[in-house]
């Protein structure tokens, strides 16, 4: 047991566990809807746009987290408003994504003092999180989850059955815009932990695995949050004892979790088919 | 008795094209109407106008005497263009539950009564096993039955079913028609049931609404499915062949409905015959 308690003797590890815990739960829950709506690529693009925002903020002397949050939020809302035209078109999203990374590089070029932080932005630096950042993350997390709770019902309806939802009076465009704003907030928190390039590890891996393992709404949501939390904390622990980068450990666990869930559901499907055949015979 | 649906000199335009032009029809409460016509004749467009999703560019639409409005709880709807996300791992129960008060804000909660209602309705169409299965593992026909059950939930007074028989095998087509007819009679519900084939609905429908060339003809099968009426509607020579209780509408030696029906196969629906 002492080997476990050892890492909690360091304040940076306690901070890292706190920050990663908050962000993992938010990422798992928001990511669940991202996966359900097949909009994961849009989420990925938002994080790259956030990179430009963070470096741009550095250029004008603002804290990167506000540039990141502001830019992703604005981009999320614009993508939502253009919804039919942009947010589900891979090519358009890919172009915007590349352009955003390009701008990030340009801002870095003019603000060389910031360059050392670039790697932290791209791949995360959860071990450098301080109390103030945890407080900021907690506030953002509450806002994100409240925003999601407010639109959750019509969001699910519009995601599963857009034609019927429209007929029943759900404002589709508003719902998809509000959702992308929620995603933007979650992405900016997630990027603090695993970096803009690896937001998939917490926002897509755990929810996608959860949806292979369970088909219920609430069970899926809970499992997505629990898996994200487990992967984030296990990743931190693994990193502490192995000295590998935290984001690598989380990315590895996320991929392992997803492929294990794929395997488990494939095995389960074969198993139940066999059962049906037996019953029929 | 007020008409369930009344169109007075209605023109419906989509993208600069008159889909229906100067159409006047009145559907009585409790009628079972078979909506027929080739692809693009305006079956879906008409339903969208009744739902208040498409304002007419001329004329007035009335639903139970009122102007149509979005979100009308008295209308049950089974849309034709069904967006099913490729990897949707959500079970049937939660899929249907999403439509119950789905337009209200906040967090969804599945009440015991809702659950029971879903269960009873699924049982009605012999689809209870779909409640626990994920959509991604259902066949086109199974999804269709799920959607049909959903349209019946909430005791609507008017049921708009847009091609509900697509993807269903013959046995489930019969069940679907029989259930809709039974529920409609029991509840005094008005039904607009669009289909590619008239013959399946022959014993069920009260009147037929035939759409074509921007026009609409509403009447009994005997009055509407005749060579002169349909020839006028299509603007070409139409022959109607009646044999052994079946009716075939032919144009230049081809079966109009089957030509339209075959067209659908190209769109990836998994038909079974």
Features:
heterodimer; A: 281 residues; mainly alpha; ABC transporter involved in vitamin B12 uptake, BtuC; 13 helices; globular; B: 273 residues; alpha/beta; 6-stranded mixed sheet; 3-stranded antiparallel sheet
Q: Estimate the helix proportion of chain A, in percent.
A: over 70%
The third-level CATH topology of chain A is ABC transporter involved in vitamin B12 uptake, BtuC
Overall pLDDT of chain B, averaged?
Answer: 87
The strands making up the biggest β-sheet of chain B line up spatially as 5-6-7-3-8-9
Alpha-beta content class of chain A: mainly alpha
Greatest contact between two chains: A-B, 31 and 37 residues
Write down the secondary-structure element order of chain A.
HHHHHHHHHHHHH
How much is the average pLDDT of chain A?
88
Distance between the termini of chain A: 53 Å
Catalogue the unreliable spans of chain A.
274-281
Question: Quick recap of the structure?
Answer:
By secondary structure, chain A is mainly α. Helix content of chain A is 83%, strand content 0%.
Helices, strands, pairings?
The complex is a heterodimer of chains A (281) and B (273).
Chain A: H1 2-7, H2 11-36, H3 40-59, H4 64-81, H5 90-110, H6 115-123, H7 131-160, H8 162-167, H9 172-194, H10 199-203, H11 205-213, H12 217-242, H13 246-280
Helix pairs in contact in A: 2-7, 2-9, 2-11, 2-12, 3-4, 3-5, 3-9, 4-9, 6-9, 7-9, 11-12, 11-13, 12-13
Chain B: E1 3-14, E2 17-28, E3 32-36, H1 43-50, E4 58-63, E5 75-78, H2 92-97, H3 112-124, H4 140-152, E6 158-161, H5 170-187, E7 190-194, E8 207-212, E9 215-219, H6 221-224, H7 227-234, E10 238-243, E11 246-251, E12 254-255, H8 256-265
Parallel strand pairs in B: 3-7, 3-8, 5-6, 6-7
Antiparallel strand pairs in B: 1-2, 1-4, 8-9, 10-11, 11-12
Helix pairs in contact in B: 3-4, 4-5
């Amino acid at each position: 047991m002492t080997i476990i308690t050892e890492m909690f003797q360091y304040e940076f590890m306690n901070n890292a566990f706190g920050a990663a815990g908050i962000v993992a739960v938010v990422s798992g829950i928001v990511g669940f809807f991202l996966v359900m709506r097949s909009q994961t690529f849009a989420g990925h693009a938002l994080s790259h746009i956030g990179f430009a925002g963070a470096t741009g903020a550095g250029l004008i002397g603002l804290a990167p987290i506000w540039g990141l949050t502001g830019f992703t939020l604005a981009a999320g809302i614009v993508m939502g408003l253009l919804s039919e035209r942009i947010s589900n078109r891979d090519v358009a999203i890919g172009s915007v994504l590349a352009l955003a990374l390009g701008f990030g590089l340009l801002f870095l070029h003019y603000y060389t003092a910031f360059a050392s932080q670039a790697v932290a932005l791209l791949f995360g630096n959860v071990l450098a999180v301080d109390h103030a950042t945890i407080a900021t993350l907690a506030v953002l997390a509450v806002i994100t989850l409240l925003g999601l709770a407010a639109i959750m019902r019509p969001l699910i309806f519009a995601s599963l059955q857009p034609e019927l939802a429209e007929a029943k009076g759900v404002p589709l465009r508003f719902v998809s815009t509000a959702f992308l704003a929620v995603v933007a907030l979650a992405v900016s928190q997630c990027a603090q932990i695993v970096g803009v390039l690896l937001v998939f590890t917490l926002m897509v891996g755990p929810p996608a695995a959860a949806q292979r393992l369970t088909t219920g709404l609430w069970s899926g949501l809970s499992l997505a949050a629990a898996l994200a939390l487990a992967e984030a904390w296990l990743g931190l622990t693994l990193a502490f004892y192995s000295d590998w980068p935290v984001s690598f450990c989380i990315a590895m666990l996320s991929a392992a979790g997803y492929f294990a869930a794929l395997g488990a559901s494939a095995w389960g499907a074969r198993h139940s088919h066999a059962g049906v055949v037996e019953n029929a015979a | 008795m007020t008409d369930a649906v009344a169109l007075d000199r209605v023109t419906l335009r989509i993208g600069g094209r008159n889909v229906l032009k100067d159409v006047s029809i009145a559907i009585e409460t409790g009628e079972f109407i078979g909506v027929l016509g080739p692809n693009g004749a305006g079956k879906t467009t008409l339903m969208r106008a009744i739902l208040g999703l498409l304002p007419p560019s001329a004329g007035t639409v009335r639903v139970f005497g009122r102007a149509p409005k979005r979100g009308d709880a008295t209308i049950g709807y089974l849309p034709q263009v069904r967006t099913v996300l490729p990897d949707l791992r959500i079970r049937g129960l939660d899929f249907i539950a999403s439509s119950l008060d789905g337009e209200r804000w906040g967090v969804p909660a599945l009440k015991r009564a809702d659950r029971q209602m879903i269960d009873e309705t699924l049982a009605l169409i012999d689809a209870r096993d779909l409640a626990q299965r994920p959509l991604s593992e259902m066949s086109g026909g199974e999804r269709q039955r799920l959607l049909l059950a959903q349209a019946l939930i909430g005791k609507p007074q008017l049921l708009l079913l847009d091609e509900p028989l697509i993807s269903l095998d013959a046995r489930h087509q019969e069940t679907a028609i029989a259930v809709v007819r039974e529920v409609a009679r029991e509840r005094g519900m008005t039904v607009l049931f669009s289909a590619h084939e008239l013959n399946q609905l022959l014993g069920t429908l009260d009147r037929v609404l035939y759409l074509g060339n921007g026009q609409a003809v509403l009447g009994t099968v005997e009055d509407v499915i005749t060579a002169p009426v349909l020839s006028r509607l299509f603007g070409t020579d139409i022959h109607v062949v009646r044999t052994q209780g079946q009716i075939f509408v032919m144009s230049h030696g081809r079966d109009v409905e089957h030509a339209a029906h075959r067209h659908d196969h190209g769109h990836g629906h998994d038909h079974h015959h």
